[in-house]
Amino acid sequence: MNNPLIKFVYLVWFLPVFVCLTVILGLTCFLVSLFSIRAARFISNSVWGHAALDPAGIRLVTIGRENLPRTRGGYIIFANHTSMADIPAVALSTGRPLTWVAKAALGRIPFFGWALTRVHMLVDRGGGAESARKMVTEAETRLRQDEILSIFPEGTRNTTAAPLLPFKKGAFILAKHTGAPIVPLAIKNAGRLWPAGSLWPRPGTIRIKIGPPLYPEPREKLGDITLRAQNALEEMLVDDSW
User: Fold this and answer.
1) Residue 191 above 70 pLDDT?
2) Could you count the other beta carbons within 10 Å of the beta carbon of residue 118?
3) Which partner from 17, 41, 67, 181 sits 20 to 30 angstroms from 98, CA to CA?
4) What CATH number is associated with residue 117?
5) Digit-coded pLDDT (tens) for 200-235
6) Rounded CA gap, 86 and 237, in Å?
7) What are the helix (H) ranges across the chain?
8) DSSP state at residue 188
9) Which pTM was predicted?
10) CA angle 21, 188, 182 (to 5 degrees)
């Protein structure tokens, strides 16, 4: 999309549609959450996911969905993060009602933030030990309720040439304390189609691979499980066979 005229037409088409649908669905999600959190989660994941990607001409190809745990109890999905498109892509590729683990500051965004606060799990990343304790307590409750937590352990979008940034330990603290399985999800091509800082995405295909779940071992150190998870996801990203 190098032609300035095409860029302008696409921007005029996409941004109003995306912003309007996000506002409408954010408000709808908030209202629906007063009656059904599960239904609100479906709106915030599946409906908004299509609203974000379909007008942009972005399609998904997903493999490995059979690796998602089917046993009773919640689990944690972790993915690489290069693009705004990662959020709807993860939601649509899993086909599950995900609970997003996001920074608390996002809850202050009108409409979108209201829905996040009601439906998902917001974390104060700068809150120290007390905040970490509350995060673990809330996560344990949600996992016991069979919720699926989704997180980007890099903490921010990766704009480097490296497959992954160093992982933050939040997701793996949760896995270690709860014993919940953690599922790697690799996203390819999202950073090219919707680069960080860009106002408009490009049409194209995002490829997603869901890997086998990893299970915390009884005496495994936090650093070890974090490294094991990062290595598993990196191997998927550098694999050119899919």
Assistant:
1) yes
2) 18
3) 17
4) 3.40.1130
5) 788 899 999 999 999 999 888 999 999 999 999 999
6) 14
7) 4-33, 37-42, 48-53, 86-94, 112-119, 128-144, 170-178, 190-193, 222-238
8) E
9) 0.90
10) 90
